[in-house]
Amino acid sequence: MSDAATAETAVHPPSPGFLAGVAGRLSAESRVVEGEPLARKTTLGVGGRARFYAEPATREDLCLLLRQAEKCGIRVYLLGRGSNVIVPDEGVDGLVLRLQHAGWRGIEAGEDGRIWAGAGVRLRKLCGEACRQGLGGLEFLEGIPGTVGGALRMNAGAMGGWFFDLVEEVHLMTLGGEEKKCPKETLRYDYRICHDLMDTIAMGVYVRAPSRETASAIKRRLAAYQEKRAESQPRESSAGCIFKNPEGGHAGKIIDELGLKGKRVGAAEVSAVHGNFLINRGGARAADVIELVRALQEEIRRRRGIELHPEVLLFGRDWRDVL
Q1: Is 241 a catalytic residue?
Q2: Do residues 121 and 205 share a domain?
Q3: Looking at per-residue confidence, does 4 or 159 come out higher?
Q4: What pLDDT sits at residue 4?
Q5: Is 90 known to be catalytic?
Q6: Which long-range contacts link 298-307 to residues 24+ away (Cβ below 8 Å)?
Q7: Which of 154, 161, 227, 311 has the fewest Cβ atoms nearer than 10 Å?
Q8: 169 bridge partner residues
């Protein structure tokens, strides 16, 4: 992964009130710092620093950080494994939280076909645990390079499946530090978004497998999905699919048909393998990626009359401010 975007960017003004408010009150396992570089924490490898960055070890620590941020008027952003996000070169003016500690990576399968997974569990691990338990229907998650928390927020999907197809109950924390248990039917979700998790923190989820099968049958499907991904997705650093699919179509196919594969701005390039992936050739900056997204939008709008909208998040910003 490129290290280019770890270059120094604008320094955010200090806010000693926030750090002073949590000093000595967090558990020893938690971490909170100023000016943490974010590029290496993303799959695309671009972007600047976080004004504040924290890895809470417990729910109590998470609650404390959220309440102190609210008290100090600091915006909160949640970063998972760093896929499906682009961090701007100027960084993120707020508190970036990452549920990295082992306490957020618990996973437990019940005899009733339900699985509890903490927000920090990688989707590949969730898929693997389901396979070991003979629980089928989660195989589409295997190749998504994210965590359960990110999958909930984005309603991640692949191979025709959506994460919310599996969800039974989400456990979350509000930005004010209140814990809630939300059955699936109380949550508003759609294609590539769960609206109720845009301003709350998912801590974990109960999912239910659609079927019981032999591990060998599940492994065969996993192998087929892995082979398909290897053939259709680039290996270079990327953020995953850049655009949402338009109604009745596929963004990657449109980009391919218009001969836009290989189009490049700086070291950001449209993948030759899959048109809906932008890759970092080494040395890319977030500005290159954003300019390439803009150029693709304009070209597709001009030649096809189709308006493509980004699927990937512009971390800490709104795409409408830059496109």
Answers
A1: yes
A2: yes
A3: 159
A4: 35
A5: no
A6: 299/258, 299/260, 300/254, 300/255, 300/258, 300/260, 303/258, 304/254, 304/258, 306/246, 306/249, 306/254, 307/246
A7: 227
A8: 183, 206
Task: For residue 313, give both structure tokens.
Answer: 């998040």
Task: Give the three-state DSSP class for 97.
Answer: strand
pLDDT at 36 over 70: yes
Residue partners of 321: CB distance under 8 A and separation at least 6: none
Does the global pTM surpass 0.85? yes
- Which structural domain range is residue 180 located in? 105-215
Cβ proximity of 135 and 154 under 8 Å: no
pLDDT band for position 297 (cuts 50, 70, 90): very high
CATH number at residue 61: 3.30.43.10
Sheet with 264-265: list strands edge to edge.
238-241, 277-280, 268-270, 264-265
Give the domain CATH number at 190: 3.30.465.10
Q: Is 168 a catalytic residue?
A: no
pLDDT value of position 222:
84
Question: How many folded domains does the chain comprise?
Answer: 3
Residue 78 lies in a domain: yes
Distance CA 33, CA 36 (A): 7
Query: Which position among 51, 81, 122, 192 bears the catalytic label?
Result: 192
pLDDT band of residue 16 (cuts 50, 70, 90) is low
User: Of 36, 213, 269, 311, which residue is the catalytic one?
Assistant: 311
SS3 for 241? strand
State the catalytic residue, choosing from 221, 236, 241, 269.
241
| pLDDT surpassing 90 at residue 93 | yes
CA torsion sign for 184, 56, 25, 34 is negative
